[in-house]
User: Which sequence fits this backbone?
């Protein structure tokens, strides 16, 4: 997943505020790179429960860019995150996704996806394992 955070960073690093002193600019670049990496890592770990990752990342880094470049940064972030999401979805569909922790497939009584880990080689957690038995029967 590393290549995706790097690609996002590369596409926006030259847009970072040029009117700050060099140490500050270095600090900005580090902060932007760290935010890109954190976002992509989180996406890889938890793709189904990370809503609007491009928005999260943009909100986090927009302060490092001059107002005149915000639209371009927003666009680059959306493109870069979109590419990472497509890649993860392809991996999930072909069953080779290994970046994430698997989750129980059940829905809780509150209508939210169950957050517990499934039993080994099963699709449901201990509290929901009866769902699997019922389906199989
Ligand atoms: Zn469960």
Assistant:
């Amino acid at each position: 997943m590393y290549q995706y955070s790097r690609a996002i960073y590369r596409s926006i690093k030259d847009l970072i505020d040029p009117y700050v002193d060099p140490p500050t600019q270095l600090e900005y670049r580090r902060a932007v790179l760290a935010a890109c990496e954190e976002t992509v890592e989180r996406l890889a770990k938890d793709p189904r429960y990370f809503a609007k990752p491009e928005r999260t990342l943009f909100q986090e880094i927009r302060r490092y860019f001059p107002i005149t470049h915000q639209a371009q940064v927003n666009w680059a972030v959306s493109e870069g995150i979109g590419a990472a999401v497509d890649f993860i979805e392809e991996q999930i569909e072909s069953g080779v996704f290994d970046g994430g922790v698997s989750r129980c497939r059940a829905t809780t009584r509150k209508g939210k996806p169950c957050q517990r880990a499934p039993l080994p080689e099963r699709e449901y957690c201990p509290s929901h394992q009866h769902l699997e038995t019922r389906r199989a029967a």
About this structure: The radius of gyration is 19 Å.
